[in-house]
Design goal:
There is one protein chain. The protein is α+β, with helices and mostly antiparallel strands. It folds into 2 domains: about 150 residues, Diaminopimelate Epimerase, Chain A, domain 1 (Roll), CATH 3.10.310.10; about 160 residues, Diaminopimelate Epimerase, Chain A, domain 1 (Roll). The chain is about 20% helix and about 40% strand. The longest helix has 20 residues. It is globular, with a radius of gyration of 19 Å. InterPro entries: Pro_racemase_fam.
């Protein structure tokens, strides 16, 4: 029999951002931590990540969630976050999507509503609550890892705009947050290419000046995500934003870890209060995430906050992919657009 591989995937969209969810198809050495599982997957199956998330099966901005056995008794399931270029430490829209799918497909031990799922991620354990009404999974709210404002007022020069001040906040990943005047450039799909280029330029400048290491999780050092934000025209919405990452990839949704980082930044600057819910609008403008800081905490002795993010995810479809390691194009490829 010829050696071959098939991978089953579930596809969702969370306010426009697609998640490719792969459930339980890969075996890992016993007794390994989640980070060790991620390293094992990198060494053994990284070609699968590239083949599924990049063309010809995926696209440049596709994000993935690999469901794995939990390594901690404090969690129900583990998730390794993937994209076409590599691996992430936490993903909010992916948490909403994965929690929704696990509840809708009856893959969790709890059948009550809200369904509570403890998810182990490389950034720490997050806790989802999924609300079910009859046969309908209506929404998911998750409590994220502690968030904090790490750096303030870093000068960044953007073509056509000049020098602006950026902050760095942690919300499961490190984010560079930059206010973007709407009169300069509106955050909208038709301006995606321009926004992506600005994100790459801003990230290059920040990474030349500042190096980050999470004070409790030293494996988290990457400063890869750039959030541009401006006032929203939607009534009752606090801001509109877009998150760019890697070499011009773009989140279509308001972003879950991005919302968490924005909450930490806004609270740290005195613009919102603990317990104040806000609505965040993403690139598409089609819907919102609700974010709220529920309490204060500390990270390595420094003040931090605990955010929650609420959103909805919808089923897009299913795929069974055939992967042939002898098919060079089938292993995945990327065409640069920025």
């Amino acid at each position: 029999m010829k050696r071959t591989m098939f991978v089953d995937a579930v596809y969702t969209q969370t306010e426009g951002e697609t998640t490719c969810i792969i459930n339980g198809q890969f075996l890992f050495p016993g007794g390994t931590t989640l980070l060790e599982k991620r390293e094992h997957f990198k060494k053994r199956f990284d070609w699968v990540r590239k083949a599924i998330l990049n063309e010809p099966r995926g696209h440049n901005d596709l994000f993935g969630a690999l469901i794995v056995p939990a390594s901690s008794p404090d969690s129900d399931v583990g998730v390794i976050w993937l994209d076409g270029d590599g691996y992430g430490d936490m993903c909010g829209h992916g948490t909403i999507a994965t929690s929704t799918v696990m509840t809708a497909f009856d893959l969790t031990p709890n059948t009550s509503s809200p369904n509570r799922i403890r998810i182990e991620t490389p950034a720490g354990i997050v806790v989802s609550e999924v609300h079910v009404n009859g046969d309908e999974v209506e929404w998911c709210k998750f409590e994220n890892v502690p968030a904090f404002l790490a750096e303030r007022d870093i000068p960044v020069t953007l073509p056509g705009l000049g020098t602006v001040m950026a902050d760095i906040a942690f919300g499961g990943n490190y984010f560079i947050t930059i206010p973007l005047p709407e009169e300069f450039l509106r955050i909208a799909p038709e301006n995606g290419a321009h926004l992506a280029r600005l994100g790459v330029l801003a990230k290059q400048q920040i990474n030349e000046k500042i190096k980050m290491v999470h004070p409790e999780k030293p494996h988290i050092t990457e400063v890869d995500l750039v959030t541009f934000y401006q006032d929203s025209q939607r009534e009752g919405t606090f801001y509109r934003c877009v998150h760019t990452y890697r070499n011009g990839k773009m989140d279509r949704s308001p972003g879950g870890t991005g919302t968490s980082a924005m909450l930490a930044m806004l609270e740290g600057r005195g613009r919102i209060a603990v317990g104040q819910p806000i609505l965040a609008e993403g690139l598409l403008g089609s819907g919102t995430f609700e974010g709220c800081i529920v309490r204060e905490t500390t990270v390595a002795g420094n003040r931090a906050v605990v955010p929650t993010v609420k959103g909805r995810s919808s089923l897009v479809g299913f795929a069974k992919w055939h992967l042939d390691p002898q098919d060079e194009n089938g292993k995945g490829y990327v065409i640069s657009t920025v």
